[in-house]
Design brief:
Length: about 210
């Protein structure tokens, strides 16, 4: 990430729903929220792993089946143990480290910062460590800056995967709060891939303190 692609991401149109039985069998409900006069469920499938926001109230489809419509999703992937980041020992001792694969929010709901909510929920309620992708659209940069500045219960760091070190690359690490690290050290504009190896890391602040105390 940081190769910054100007413009908006070409998000696919989200058309997904789950039956009540599937939702109960497959997902853990980790939060219930209310916004835009609608009750929503934050649901999580640990096996994939995958998190989504779905309407709590069901709708009846054309086959007469009641289904929970999904309005936002976030997909994750596990980094392999032979990855270049393995050199950062304390990071890879954390088995709950995942890279963001993709986030999709229905077009009518993109003003509600649901993607930010999904990131925050995974870090603060499931104690996951999240890693950015190596390419970001302008909206992705804004999301990570918002996480760093405003989100309670998590901290954000900048990691160079080639160097195997956190910024400032001297064996220490500096918390990124949206302004503490120069933008020029994080992002490069496409097609410049200078900062391709650089990723942002979001960690649960309490869990990070506990790991450091071991």
């Amino acid at each position: 990430m940081p190769v910054l692609i100007r413009g908006d991401s070409k998000m696919i149109v989200l058309d997904r729903s789950y039956s009540t039985a599937t939702l109960a069998r497959r997902f853990e409900i980790i939060d219930e929220i209310h916004f835009n006069n609608v009750d929503m469920l934050v649901i999580y499938d640990e096996k994939i792993p995958f998190i989504a926001i779905a309407e709590a109230q069901t709708r009846t489809d054309n086959r007469g089946e009641k289904r929970h419509h999904v309005i936002a999703t976030l997909e994750l992937s596990r980094r392999k143990n032979d990855d270049e980041i393995l050199d950062v020992r304390e990071f890879w001792e954390d088995e709950k480290a995942f890279q963001i694969e993709g986030v999709v929010v229905n077009s009518g709901m993109r003003d509600y910062r649901l993607a930010t909510l999904l990131y925050e929920t995974l870090v603060t309620k499931k104690n996951l460590t999240l890693m950015s992708d190596n390419e970001q659209y302008t909206g992705g940069r804004a999301l990570w800056k918002r996480l760093a500045q405003d989100s309670a219960g998590l901290v954000v760091f900048v990691l160079d995967t080639e160097k195997g070190q956190f910024y400032p690359y001297d064996g220490t690490r500096m918390r990124y709060d949206g302004v503490s690290i120069p933008e020029s050290a994080i992002w490069s504009d496409h097609p410049d891939k200078t900062h391709w190896p650089v990723v942002l890391i979001a960690q649960n602040s309490e869990r990070l303190s506990a790991l450091a105390a071991r």
